[in-house]
## 1
Amino acid sequence: MKILIAYDGSPISEAAIRELTRAGLPHSAQALVLCVADVFVPPESENGAPALPKELEAAITRAHSELERAVESARQMAQQASQMVQALFPDWAVQFEGVSGSPGWSIILKAEEWKAGLVVVGSRGRSAADRLLLGSVSQQVLENARCSVRIGRSSIQASEQPIRLIIGVDGSPDAERAVQSVAARQWPKGTEARVIAAVDNRLSAVFGPLLPGLGRWVDQSDPDEQGWIRRMTDSARATLSQTGLNASALVLAGDPKQVLLREAEAWQADCIFVGARGLGALERLLLGSVSSAISTRAPCSVEVVRA
């Protein structure tokens, strides 16, 4: 597994690293700690180009010197963070790198270039101002990265308490991949996993059996209109139970975003796993596309999984 960890030296990004000890990650993995210096400088004049005013040439030269210092500072910061990661995961192969550019796009491009399977970023919080900051980097990475993204937050639970996971399911391929991702991790004994499907009861009876993405769960002999939903969640629960997780399943009425957030807070979950993309337009009317809203408002870490 290749894990790209974005780091900016803040307590928030340090918390995102420490929280990885409760993420069920493999004992053997490759990690790259990336620190981005948010600096832009104009290009230097090319040979044969018209001469620039001396003052402008001097300003460009100074800017390039400042860029070099900023990148070196970012490299040193990434090195310090890599030492933290190595101490937490002694068997990992940990690299570090400092670059310059737009933080969000630099993370996205590096993840694609390095073929990362998971990107880890910190979250600024849940207030309106914090969500604005989240949108500038973490949300940008979440929406544009081609791999799974984990937005790390400090755990509510004490480190000695069992890990608690919520997996939101809606029948989409990415939601199924989220279940499979949790099942493939290496969780300590006693870890609890709760599969949750949140539906609008007014719509499920009318549209549920008609949705192509959910057709394989539907059985016309079901005694009620939510039989296919229970079948879907029970299948996910069984998959997780087979790996040794203490798994349960719930079908709850309401808006999926609000249901998952409420359950995560009430249950003091360590992480919510959701798929990056829900079903089609009609299916989202029923089950909702929740990854973006969950990532900005959750009281815990959120891992958005891509199929």
## 2
Amino acid sequence: MSALAIPHRTFSPRLARLPGWTVLVCWTAAVLLPLYILVVSCFKTTAEIYDNRLGLPQSWAFDNFVRAWTRADLGHNFINSLIVTGGAVILTIVVSAMAAYPLSRYRLGWNAIMLGLFLSGIMLPIRLASVELFTLMRKLGLLDSLTGLILVYSAIRIPFAVFIFANFMRVLPSELDEAARMDGAGEVRILFQIILPMVKPAVSIVAIFTAIAVWNDFFFPLIFIFDDRYKTVPLAISVFVGQFRTDWGLVFASLAISMAPILIMYCLLARQIREGVGAGGGMK
């Protein structure tokens, strides 16, 4: 009987892990297939893409990248996107850290209410207020300006960032603040020189999530930007999409070019993000 029980003990753990591995394999395929299509389509003509979507290109030339860069003026639009993304990331981190600091380090009676208000900002879709936001931007003279985009994106991302910072700052020992105050440090110095360096994973999480959302956004530049000088990369890529004809080779090439900065940023911050996810899993 014991000999017959050995196979059951050997294979049951493997069978128990089978559903999890199945989900992981399916998820991996769902992620890698679009990336594969993007990579091979960058080197194809539109006719090749329609003839064989999954096949390899006939030639691995970089003509699509060169044409996409010149026709869409991606160099200038890259600078615009970098200014908007960088400005939104910096402003979001600074304002959110300053808002999360008193909510997480001070014992105030209205902390829960304020956090609830910030959480409501995460749940409410901002696009429902597009008309009112457009009217406000026009009255403030912020249409057709990169500054207007930076302010809009920062306002949208601040609720999420406050929630992340508050959870990370809350677990830090209060003795840090008390020791710094005894040494004569003010609240601003405590925040930016003591607290913020200790929550680098939170800074990385806020930075990468904000950068991805801002860099890839097409909606707000579409309704706020009318001058070609202030177009961002997603808005510039739309020139290849026409009513009757779309040059898909140039679309895929320009999409691949636009992905490069975000991939580089993620690679630089990957370790901090993994540490932040691990630390966040142990928070109470």
## 3
Amino acid sequence: MDDNGQRIDVYLSSKTSLSRSSVQELVSSGAVTVNGMAVKPSYRVRMEDRIQVIFPERETATLVAEPLPIEVIYRDEDLIVVNKPPGMVMYPAAGHSGGTLMNAIAWHADRLATVGAPVRPGVVHRIDKDTSGLVVVALSDEAYFGLVSQFKERTIERSYIALVYGSMKEERGEIELKIGRSPLHRKKMSTRVKRGKPALTSWRVLERYSMATMIEAKLATGRTHQIRVHFSALGHPVLGDRDYGKKTSLRLNNIVLKIPRQMLHAERLGFSHPVTGKWLEFRVPLPEDMMEVVRALRGAFD
């Protein structure tokens, strides 16, 4: 092939409608793999190379208000705090044009912030689709910038409840491992990276079972999939996590307990109101699907 030996950014630019700089961004983000491995923009293509490009999802252009049932914990003219149910995506994207948390908030709120429009107005943080619990969304631009500042300064307090596989040896501890994009799987994160971002998770044991542990985890940083990646790195993945542990069932007293999703719940959220300065703090109990697993674990342990 005449292209043999070309830089991969030059090669892909010539084969697609993308500019060389756009290709370089895709390569650097890990969206381009050669023979299943991430490469650098300077990589030289070879005759037998199998090149795969995963293009980023494109956002839909509009946010449609939908009367979806969500639990509103707090709301005023500047912000809204909701208890996101498991299985709900944060905002519209390719494959999820509706049925998202932001579609619901657009219905329940009288107004939305302009920052982040059209489909992510006021979004200052997010939790994964299969994680349940507390989310705050700004409804005014002033609140948006105030909350973003608090996240940046790490003054917002967040606590999660997780069921992790196995028995934690200690009663409490800290996990300080850098997190970055996995060199093998573009959509996954990993602690086994050369250039990761600092990440700190503190934790303590709440309950112990025969094959699992309930822990409270507090985030000092907010890296993508941080709790899931950190506990997986310790050998104690979150139960039901299909990306970082695959512990989707447990055998308890000759009964197979199926784990419906990752057992992770954003239980507590505390922050200063970005407009009034008043300290706000919220807690929500574990959802029923997670409590069913807890009851089964307790029963097997007794």
